[in-house]
Protein: tetrahydrofolate synthase
Amino acid sequence: MTTQQAMEALHALPRLGSGKPGLERMKNLLAHLGNPEESLQCVHIAGTNGKGSLAAMTAAILTAAGYKTGLTISPYVVDFRERFQIDGEMIPPRTLASLTQKVLGAIEAIRQEGGEEPVQFEAVTALALLWFAREKCDLVVLETGLGGRYDATNAVPHTLVAAITKIGYDHMELLGDTLDKIAAEKAGIIKEGCAVVCYPDQPAEAMGPILTAAAEAHTSIITPELEDIRQLPGKTLENRIDYGGYQASLAFPGAHQANHAAMAVEIALALWREYGYEISDDAILQGLAAARMPARIEVLRRHPLLLLDGCHNPDGTRALAETLQKAKYEENLVGVLGMLADKDYQKMLEILAPCFAKVYTVTPNCPRALSGEDLQKAARFHMDAEAAATVPEALRAAVRYAEDHNLAGVVVCGSLYLAAEARPWLLKEAEK
Structure:
């Protein structure tokens, strides 16, 4: 099996199960693979926004401390192998192909036995856990896919730290239509006695279910104090922070990322305090500075600006808009926007409107995409909007418009699917 065949086989599996939510399918799959999860010690991250950034920071700190660290992220942006990393290196193509065969073999055995077939995310998660166990990782940082309680990643038994990033409105058809319902699902990753680290600016409505879950698991919650998180002076879109004396320059712009950095520090301190992992202050600072993730308010070029963000819901969009406004870019940018039809795109457009002099709308490469034409019709009530036939066409037009009108640059945002398609083009443009 080639790497390409492996990826196609995994993507051919069903996205959602037919039965009621639960972990039985996942546990059955892991049992057929020899229960690799049993040997892993985990940091588990759930929440609506910021999971990937927090996971990257945490994993980078643990690697800097000398621990062999596995990392899962979801979704990937450019390369499917981004989903599986050890010490910042993606899974080798041959390993991906051979472990996919093993996972598909287990799925075939389950079919033969008449069991319920695992879904795509379960197969991908099982593959990651199998690789981490084989490589004898000291610690594993797991990002949930969706929710928490019934997420495939929640089949791991040894959660040392559960971290909950900011709760917002997303995937409401599956998780519930209020913040407390969504938070209750996310808080399902909290296990008996594990340390819990919470986002410092969590909406009050979300805190109730998180506190309840922690109390039921006989553990307390560590929440960084907002007044202890300071943003230090720096260049435009530079993010220099101080959290309790830990001063670092983050690769991720935005005040919200300072909050994630504070969480990453608290996760490291909890691993040291509660479990005896040796994580020095130097390792914490090195990890915070080294952490990288594509399409998280990613600055690909400063002058003229080329910025890529995978924001795909109102909270993520608000974080981007606030970052751009703080950098004094109001109405001095051209946007390339692509959004999915099942997202709250009307609210996202409203939030983004003050940032752009003009936007080009496109259709992301996803079956759930809102067409560029429909997005243009919605956007024109908020800003000067023009639909483009393809993503490269929109990118070229945006760069040209910014040059012709002496604007500060181009921002591409609205969906991770759009980010995946645009990033290679933007990287080439940034090199000019």
The two ends are 38 Å apart (CA to CA). The chain has two domains: 3-290, 298-430. The CA atoms of residues 37 and 156 lie 6 Å apart. The chain is about 40% helix and 15% strand.
